Predict the 3D structure of the following.
Amino acid sequence: MKRIRRDHKVRQFHQAKWDEPVIFELHRPGERGVIPPAAEAGITAEVGDGIGRIPSSMRRSIAPRLPEIGQAKVLRHYLRLSQETLGSDLNVEIGQGTCTMKYIPRINEMLIRNPNMTELHPLQDGESVQGMLEIFYKLDLAMREISGMDAFSFQPSSGTQALLAMASIVRAYHDSRGEGDKRDEIITTIFSHPSQAATAAVKGYKIITLHPDEDGFPDLEKLKDAVSERTAGFVVANPEDTGIYNHRIREFTEIVHEAGGICFYDQANANGLLGITRAKEAGFDMSFFNLHKTFAAPHMCGGPATGALGVTESLKRFLPGPLVDFDGSRYVWTNQTDESIGKVRSFHGVTQTVLRSYAWIMSLGPDGLKDVAQIAVLNNNYLYHKILKIRGASAPYMKGRRLEQVRYSWKQLTDETGVTTEDITRRMCDFGLHYWTSHHPYIVPQPFTLEPTESYSKEDLDEYIHALEHISNEAYTQPDIVKSAPHNSTVHRNDESSLDDPKQWCITWRAYLKKTQPE
Amino acid sequence: MSENRTYAHPYIPNTVPEVRDAMLKEIGLASMEQLHDAIPDSLKLKREMNLPPAMTEHELRRHIDGLLAKNKHGAAYLNFLGAGCWQHFIPAICDEVNQRSEFVTAYAGEPYEDHGRFQSLFEYQSLMAELVDMDVVNVPTFDWSQAASTAIRMAGRITGRTVALLPKSVDPDKVMIIRNYCTPVMELRFVEIDAETGRMDLDDLRSKLSSDTAAVYFENPGYLGIIEDQGNQISSLAHSVNAVSIVGVDPISLGVLEPPSRYGADIVCGDLQPLGMHMNYGGGQAGFIATRDEETYVMEYPSRLFGIVPTEVEGEYGFGDVAYERTSFAHRENGKESVGTQTALWGITAGVYLSLLGPSGMQEVGETIMQKSQYAAKKLSAIPGVSLRFGGTAFFKEFVVDFNDTGLTVAQINQRLTAAGIFGGKDLSDAYPHWGQCALYCVTEIHSQADLDRLADAIQTIVHKP
């Protein structure tokens, strides 16, 4: 037989396409998916049917119109839907910049399935959960060392909730000094995550957003103009979502401190900094890590997750409680005082993620964590170097090296071909790859944000680069193939015209049946 | 490359020295240190971090399993703790689906490469909508407390008012979360509960309603397990001052209890954990919010809302974001509250649970819970010195057991129960000191008659006065 040629540079891919119905269409009256436990005859003899006790006004009058489906059919349906989902396990997921889509070690996923983890009740006596508390405590110690902060809470269950907790601490701090009403402004930057501004607004703050200077750095002069006796705090990521590290960060935090504000650090972009530089030395009073980004917990379609929140000693009293402590022989939960912001999430947060991240740190050690930072930056600069050679692509702002990610622009490509970054989003999935543009607003025109992390090999990076080159070439030679993408995905382009129209949008199947008629 | 390691790290392929050096050369650098030139020397950490050395996979497994072995868990022990996290039957398919690699590791893909994620969450919204009998359900948020907090903030925006009324029976931890989330924009005020029945005191509610009231929030079943059968009156009273009626529910009760939409609720919220999530030491929580399909309500959700749409090919279902411009993703501080990573995988799991249980399963599980909890309550209250705090009021899966006449504290009783392999109910003496020694017991479909008899026998032995 002949040798099979394997010299194509882009993957010949097709996403699973099961043409799967919506689950209500699988309904067959009388079928059962599972039988829940029943009461024994002895119980029925004692208390009857149980529901006779429900006041008549509270008895369910019409059964829920849930579908009735046999077990195998339910499993098959959801397995098919899972196949129609491109998890980071299955692709070179460097296209979701800002989110640090790194390798999720399988051992950690096995460790969390231990019944000594899954079957723990959060209110069990501390004596019966010593192992769990030890993991919380040791992760706290590790986080302190990595950040320079003095105490951590793992209660916040996402970056957004950590930001909310930090804005709450800012308010509690100023309230404790009698300045809560006077200090009503929080300063942030436009290249920081939208939740920084949004959560501060939830806490009643007026938001001041700094725009970058011509090199893409947060503008120190603008910060000087912005601070005043109304400044409650300053929240920023560093590097920002451009991958540009603000080397004058210490001056920023000093200016805010001189004005009496609190500096809090969104460390969503920490992956290139582990073991290199820390929140403390940059002058921050608080910081948080997304355990589902930097510390290798999975993203799970969008949570549950953890925003591990660290503070300096002077702010510890405001942390949500309780906090884990070690008295030399036993691990304990210690309640906070009334100065604390109270709680931001029930119980102790997403414990599985705490366990995963502890396991990840233990599998890397201090030198391995520094390898993570160095290789993440190496991979990014390799990618950056190559992407700048692709026709139509650029990286606005400063020309030097970036840290762990870059926000690029297709402005030239769009100007010359009419193909937009959204078109490319849809085309990339034809090659089994994911690609993301940017948060809004699009300060960088026709943006795309890539973060290759430490997890991908040189060949993986080359595959991604080849796909972008291929699409750039298509844009200049046959743009319609990009504009009409996807071609090899589960479905074709959505008709999105109903999504913003209250008369037409259908957020549930029952709404769809009410709002649409068969032809 | 790590000085302590002579091989590439399994998680970091480009630690292979030849590859690393070739990449450095390609970008014109001579050393790894140059990669971080942007960081001022004064900010650099000039020592190795003080952390334990790396473990291999086998060492890690032994280490973690060893730590976890120090725990005692609710499957080996008999567990009667609830109070916001409950031990329920979990169908195997729930675990199978939520452990799928694709779902575990997906995040923010487009409706094309992640069609399955969008469809699963749309189906979750749709299944939950049937359970609560409302037309809109969100992609879930962190937990019940967050869902209640957001429901109250939604009501504040809808009414332009700032006061929310809650019964004093709401979980004190939940109140802490809601209070923090609402401060300083909204104010919480508390309504008395009837000392005999545990239900809301309607006279006190009337006296506290005013033109400032944005919302009345209550629960069914409540934190103390009680079925609040005055829902219609409470909602009517709220509506009489043009306030929003918000009801928090335990969704596993809704096969047997009337959904709040039928007694006047405008916003329904609660926790999904009972619908297929392991307790996970509190890591299984997820909050849902549901409303009618009215623009006034829909436009106030901060959450993602996935909708079904046609595609350009006839016969294909597509899915996308409804009214994305509401969100903080679109408009930062000018969006509705904030959105980001929440609890999507638990939403998918709850959808799997509801599609397995179906209408019959939901009714059966509700019936079983009510039978077993009543049986347990009857057995316990038959013990001399032990009684029910709100014995005259119907309850669902939790009930307050009064130990005042035993002469023992709940702490003492629970310590002795633990020695007998039983986690007793949650000690309420801190949160409700005026009730003395009371505990909140949780009984669900997973408890057998033998389990419940064992609990009653153990308590009988502990409180027995010689």
The radius of gyration of chain B is 26 Å. The CA atoms of residues 10 and 400 of chain B lie 53 Å apart.
